[in-house]
């Protein structure tokens, strides 16, 4: 039976750190769904539709990766897609503490769903969407942190 994983996030915007996890996950799983969720505690720079388009362009060379948008709980989305694996990237110990809480809650809501943690490549361990947006806001070159399409979108947003 083919194994599908969901790689959820707000992806505002997608970075090379995210892509590292997605690409490596695509080598392990038969199919990876990159699912854009709206984090209510964040004020996004890009709309959900813009984020989805940027992800589609950034992953267009990965035939076993698809992109989607969801509202609500991740476990409900996973159930609707008949997926029982969540793929998450970790940068540091602080990420693990947060992810452990989320994973524990997901397990409480649906014990059939497993979370697969993958350490981000060391060169991206400092990278976050927030850091990228802050640098781009002040006209710094972020082209080595995000795909070209994202770098261009950031330039447009901060004109």
From TrEMBL:
Its EC number is 2.7.7.3. GO terms for biological process: coenzyme A biosynthetic process. Pfam families: CTP_transf_like. Keywords: ATP-binding, Coenzyme A biosynthesis, Cytoplasm, Magnesium, Nucleotide-binding, Nucleotidyltransferase, Transferase. It is found in: Cytoplasm. It comes from the Bacteria. NCBIfam families: coaD_prev_kdtB (TIGR01510), cyt_tran_rel (TIGR00125). Homohexamer. This is Phosphopantetheine adenylyltransferase.
